[in-house]
Amino acid sequence: MTTSKTPVSIDLLIKKIAEKRNPTVAGLDPALDLIPEFLKKNAYEKHGETLRGAAKAVLKFNKGLIDALYDIVPAVKPQSAFYEALGVEGIKALHRTCEYAKKRGMYVILDGKRGDIGTSASGYAAAYLSGVKAGETECVSFPVDALTVNAYLGSDGVTPFVEACEKHHKSIFVLVKTSNPSSGELQDRLVDGRPVYELMGEMCGEWGKKLFGKYGYSAVGAVVGATYPEQIKTLREMLPNTFFLIPGYGAQGASAADLTAAFDKNGLGGAVNSSRGIIAAYKKEGCDERDYAGAARREAVRMRDDITRRIICR
Amino acid sequence: MTTSKTPVSIDLLIKKIAEKRNPTVAGLDPALDLIPEFLKKNAYEKHGETLRGAAKAVLKFNKGLIDALYDIVPAVKPQSAFYEALGVEGIKALHRTCEYAKKRGMYVILDGKRGDIGTSASGYAAAYLSGVKAGETECVSFPVDALTVNAYLGSDGVTPFVEACEKHHKSIFVLVKTSNPSSGELQDRLVDGRPVYELMGEMCGEWGKKLFGKYGYSAVGAVVGATYPEQIKTLREMLPNTFFLIPGYGAQGASAADLTAAFDKNGLGGAVNSSRGIIAAYKKEGCDERDYAGAARREAVRMRDDITRRIICR
Q1: Does residue B25 register a pLDDT over 50?
Q2: Which domains does chain A have, with CATH numbers?
Q3: Which chain B residue shows the shortest CA-CA distance from A194?
Q4: Strands (E) located in chain B
Q5: B185 at the A interface (CB within 8 A)?
Q6: For chains A and B, what is the number of CB pairs under 8 angstroms?
Q7: Which of A62, B13, B172, B218 has its CA at 20 to 30 Å from residue A7's CA atom?
Q8: A143: Cβ–Cβ under 8 A, 6 or more apart, which residues?
Q9: Residue contact B123–A200, C-beta within 8 A
Q10: What is the pLDDT of residues A6-56, one digit of tens each?
Q11: Which of B114, B120, B223 to probe by mutation at the A interface, max A CB count within 10 Å?
């Protein structure tokens, strides 16, 4: 395996969004209770009620979703937690999911929210952005295009990621204002009269200054929850060159109207994630669980149309 | 595999520290450039210059270190980044390292600095603290005793970890004041006249309130860098029932004198990590690299004696 030298950066994601006229990211968060029973039953019959069995069901589930979505949705965002939950076998399923999504032409954002002091951050950057050298051989550790990053530790914990983005044409998304109900406990507290998320947003803008792509957005993006529309607006004004990864649409409660402020006049500048809303659409729809991928596609179409009624991506 | 119901919590770590009269944690951070050449050469000859080859060298390195340390050092702290850097094969080596350290009677703290919104935090809690159910079978995903947690997302991202600690007798260490040079960029900023790390410390104390062990310390601990001795002192006064995981000794520059304030009158209340200082002691010592484990033990003895000149653990 050799590391890819193909330029990807944020431009590749934006290009895919513009081509598909769809700023949606499908979050691949395969909690076991979201996976159709028939997939689990088949996998457990073959591999036993083991982590391996569960991981095989996850991979099958994901491949079905990717096959149903790849021509209309530009990107997937696997949530690392749900793969780690299945141990080594789960990580194998994660690796193969990323590989499969890339083979299908999708942009892969690993949602790992990694962050550490400099030396360890270099390890994470190697894992997901730059690869490692085994002897004289360059190896790709995980085939992903972008990683989410937690910057509670400050600049020296972020710099290794930024350097890897530059050298290996990858992107990161730094947690600025997260979509969850408690995000304000720390992120909304005022520092010199301004909330912590603005301070983090400002640092995020600084880290990304050297890495602008051809659409005017940096390879250092920000995670900004759709559940906080006012904050999206403020952050967009503060950070005109920062691409936003926007969770919170659908199952978490945000609507298309909540996130329009993230987008520029060309309908670009953001990617909206829905996880459970898409991958477990079969439950909400009440269709036969064997049609889970069809239901995911129907929800992805509905979501695309819902968003692009307000935002025209071009 | 079934989940362990043995009570571990923070008491098990404290018991091991008291028994060995040594509050040291050996950080297993196997960056490839810290691994002796002969181990890499052997592994690459057998498995090729691949991620598998590199991961085999890591596992061999770690087993040698554990064999040399387990009778004098109570705990190991593998840094997840360096295993993730080697892809699926690295995660296998991580799993086997944790298993081997536990077999040798060591307390295993996975340094993953995980954190996410509630549903995803539950995935991480399953991975490292509670295990998962595959069908009707309880499975252990990674055999660890404790996990480091990043709480930038607030309470709903931490609660799943706390609940798993309670139910499965595990511990977490929440990042409060980290040891790196840039930690102050966010953590030292003032919120209502108090630095962010104090706010985080206070939340950490709240999260741990239900989980006190028999030594008076909670299963929800805090990461507090030895490189910031004044902050250790303040946090210890604020948080008399919070156990501190203390990185920064050795290679990062802190001395034994810097961390005495973390400990109570019985010499308990903290565990001091050294990673490169111990595992790459052979480089600093300049001995034959084949004696890397011997050098690690000599440094661990020196470190123990250096710290316990000031703190008597009993």
Answers
A1: yes
A2: 9-308 (3.20.20.70)
A3: B191
A4: 24-28, 75-78, 107-114, 132-134, 137-139, 146-149, 171-177, 190-191, 194-195, 220-224, 244-246, 270-274
A5: yes
A6: 244
A7: A62
A8: A95, A98, A99, A102, A108
A9: no
A10: 454 799 999 999 999 999 999 999 999 999 999 999 999 999 999 999 999
A11: B120
Q: Which residue has the tokens 């087993």?
A: B63
CB B36 within 8 A of CB B280: no
The helix (run of H) or strand (run of E) holding residue A113 is strand A107-114
Please enumerate in sequence order all residues whose Cβ is within 8 A of that of A151, keeping only pairs 6 or more positions apart, or say none.
A115, A157, A158, A174, A175, A200, A203, A204, B186
**Facing residue for A50 by CB, picked from B139, B179, B186:** B139
Q: Which residues of A are the active-site residues?
A: 113
- Which among B216, B95, B110, B115 is positioned nearest to B161, based on CA atoms? B115
Token duo for residue A113: 């929210």
Q: In a 10 Å sphere around its CB, with 0-12 CB exposed, 13-18 middle and 19+ buried, how is residue A188 labelled? A: middle
Q: Which residues lie below 8 Å from residue B256, measured CB to CB, with a gap of 6+?
A: B249, B306, B307, B309, B310, B311
Question: What is the crossing angle of helices B159-168 and B118-125, to 10°?
Answer: 30
The percentage of chain A sitting over the pLDDT mark of 90, rounded to a whole number, equals 93
Chain A: residue nearest B143 by CA? A87
What's the pTM?
0.96
Is pLDDT of B7 > 90? Answer: no
Yes or no, beta carbons of B134 and A32 under 8 Å apart: yes
Which of left, alpha, beta for A87 (phi over 0: left; psi -120 to 50: alpha)? left
Is residue B11 less than 8 Å (CB to CB) from chain A? no
pLDDT for the residue A7: 54
* Mean pLDDT value across residues B283-287: 97
Nearest Cα neighbor of A186 from A202, A199, A197, A201 is A197
pLDDT at position B9 is 80
Is residue A112 over pLDDT 60? yes
Helix (H, G, I), strand (E, B) or coil at B216: coil
Q: What tens digit of pLDDT does each residue of A215-266 get?
A: 999 999 999 999 999 999 999 999 999 999 999 998 888 999 999 999 999 9
The token duo for A248 is: 């919170």
Q: Are strands B270-274 and B24-28 parallel, antiparallel or unpaired?
A: parallel
Are B160 and B170 in contact by the 8 Å Cβ rule? The answer is no
Interface probe for B, chosen from A116, A124, A189, A249 (most Cβ of B below 10 Å), is A116
Q: Read off the pLDDT of residues B92-126 as tens digits, 9 standing for 90 and up.
A: 999 999 999 999 999 999 999 999 999 999 999 99
Please report, as a single letter, which amino acid is at residue B17. I
Q: What share of chain A is helix, strand, coil (3-state, %, to 5)?
A: 50, 20, 30
